[in-house]
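Problem: given the chain below (291 residues), write out its structure.
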Amino acid sequence: MNAYQRTDGFSLMLPDGTTMPRLGQGTWMMGESEGKRQAEVDALKNGLTLGMNLLDSAEMYADGRAESIAGEAIIEYDRSDVFLVSKVYPWNAGRDRLSKSCEQSLKNFGVETLDLYLLHWREDADLAEVVYGMEELIDRGKIRRWGVSNFDTEDMEALWKVTDGKKCAVNQVLYNLGSRGIEFDLMPWQRERGIPFMAYCPVAQGGSLREELLNSGDVWETAQKHNATPIQILLSFVLRHEDMAAIPKAVSQEHVEQNAVVRSIRLSEDDIELLSRSFPAPGRKTPMEKV
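Solution.
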């Protein structure tokens, strides 16, 4: 049973037949300064109040402190209304360490079960061991489902050859208007198999990863057309895919509210064509971008 059962028209279907919110909140770079902790907790709480009930974190983020910030933010909310995601280091993903990492993440969040647990990246992790350990965590009630992150097409193909590898629920990848590499082969590969995406850095860290995004006349023109900000257009570009969730990070109340409003923005085919004029879809295979 999926903890998240709300059907507000802005969720995606997972391979197990349950749903996941399509607009959430990321916690990367949270927990790195004690002086910012309360502001970060408040930001996540504000987002939850506005219906952005997907929270993404990882044991890597500030050595688990980001998980504890998310845990503090959800205390006042019904657990069934929050979809919690975390990620495990590849060197902690063997069956001898995976359980320990998961238990620590659960402790950091202050919960008994994660809705989704991801292998953060592949590196030299033994995929057969990873899948076995993930399925064991499901059997023990520690997680509801598992997935991967930063997996390119060849990685997914390798996963598919492993026993129970096809039970993968999600692949979390870097994707935004300026980083469209997955559209060439990974996106069609996963769609053939019904595996949805989670996009991290969906607005390129507020444009800092790709400064030309916020300097683009095409982005500004599209924003003016929709009475929106350029950041909102970048997020809308990602969320136009119905099989993709996005987890932007925001700390200020204004940015949190702006992210929430994006659910009402619908880009047209003409909008996509205009945006693609400056930032075209790839015409060939490109190395997967990671941050």
